[in-house]
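Why run this: before we spend reagent on co-expression, it is cheaper to look at a predicted model of the complex and decide which construct boundaries make sense. The entries below are exactly what would go into the expression plan.
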Amino acid sequence: MSAKNKKFVYGIFNDDQVVLNAIPALRSKGLKVKDVISPFPIHGLDEVLGLERTRISIACFLFGMTGCGLALLMTSYMNIFDWPMDIGGKPSFAFYKNLPAFIPVTFESTVLCAAHGMVITFLLRSKLLPGVEPNVIHPRMSDDQFVMAVQINDDSEIANVESQLRAAGAIETKK
Amino acid sequence: MHKESELRPPLILGDKTWHDITEDVCRPVESKANKWWWLAFSVSLAAFIWWVIAVSYTVGTGLGVWGLNKTVGWAWDITNFVWWVGIGHAGTLISAILLLFRQKWRLSINRSAEAMTIFAVICAASFIVSHMGRPWVAYWPLPLPNQFGSLWVNFNSPLVWDVFAISTYFSVSLAFWYTGLIPDFAVIRDRANTKWRKRIYTILSFGWIGSAKNWQRFEEVSLVLAGLSTPLVLSVHSVVSMDFATSIVPGWHTTIFPPYFVAGAIFSGFAMVQTLLIIVRKVLTLEDYITIYHIDMMNRVILITGSIVGVAYITEFFIAWYSGVEYEQYAFINRATGPYWWAYWSMMTCNVITPQLFWSKKLRESVFATFIISIFVNVGMWFERFVIIVTSLHRDYLPSSWTMYSPTWVEAGIFIGSIGLFFTCFLIFVRVFPVIAMSELKTIVKSSSEGAKKKQAVTAKQETH
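The model came back. Tokens follow.
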């Protein structure tokens, strides 16, 4: 939504329920409601906006499987194949016999890769990194105001969109 | 919209709006510290300096400066390590397990409890590094290619499991905590009226604006991280307990250890959360958010986990007798009646008897009683680890090696100093970080706050008339 060549009109709301009710009403009148910026997650907003379900948990599962596989490879290579040790009369000569003792490390490695892989994916995919300049549309959009972004094709639509937004409950509008 | 019975106690007192929450939570960050904060900070910092001196002296001279001997090779170092790791567990329990159970009362306390987790694990790690004696070879437990003929670490060893468990736990807790902090940093950024505050919180908030997609991913990440952290936190203290349980030392070699340690960890962690939050809510005037109801809920967890710990103590004793193993039986009789009887009975009093007082609703809802009992539990859980470690080691299979252990000023310094390190970190945290997860707390204003419940009651009345 922050693409430079697109034009938006922003409606500022002060209630989440009003925002939720306004979106289908405005869309039925032909307004292109693209996004809502809110100080906290609004439940049901995804469906109303028509957002697709995030696939980040699938990424997390794949990262976890990678971590699990790497740990199994690491333990078997280091302790069984490369340098098997015989400690306390309990030799490490067969992977399947040692597997129970390798479970803790495998589990921790799975969680490590799954959690960090997912968080890093989340940050990169959402373009959240130290130094990113935020597009602050309204100073209270992280406090108690809700910003609805409506896309327009050219400036002639502004007046119409603004009045529609106000009719739907916006307390303020912004170009 | 989510509706909640007005009979349920409100989670936010007073007629708070979203903006009030922002104001109340940001106030400590945006205002100057009072003299009480500076006093507490100076004391903590002084203790921390003692820690620096004691650790430097240990590293520079060698482990001989501690009170350890050939028989008792582990004492205060590992006692403190297990104590701190255990304390950390409550933070993850609150933020992860209570999230999965949809317990909304977690929202006022999860941020500070997670901060406590991070700082407690830092304190715990400091004992691991200092008890090595040669911290410059602290990388040896890592599976790195090396010059010793590529002799790898032994993945069958619980000590190596511990390295993986603690480092995973620390880094995942940190990621979980920071992810939750990003939207709240953005709140401070958008309100900032000084150049430096704006600049610092812009960097810390990673450019967060809170678009629909941001929040959708944020919620999914929080949920999945909670799902990952739940087995993780249970695994961490289980692995810590296996450091003992897989050995053949009488008093350590028991299969009850993993669940018993996890229950004890949550027990001590909640006690520490109470100790901290009772002070924090008063000093930062957050009584409307961390209410008597929150204190009551946490006291219930203390009561339950304290009872589990009590049953575990008695079970251990019974199993020692039932096993028929003389060494095992002696270890337990020695704990209760030997030279360290005072440590054992301090543990029994603080951990088994004091939490039972919480059956009384009056005491559960008393801030003063909760504070005192939480201190008792903290002390009791420290003694539990001391009893397990020192009384098991000081008299084992070979009576000619039997001896006593007492700490030196260096060990005392590292222990007191680690408390100083913890409080130094925590006091900085309450000044520069939002101590309540305000973005998440705002989601329950319309359903669970006192104001919302009043409105609901009024509408209900109008409907019936």
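Chain A has five helices and six strands. Strands of chain A lie at 7-13, 32-37, 86-87, 90-91, 146-152, 172-174. Bring this page to Monday's planning discussion.
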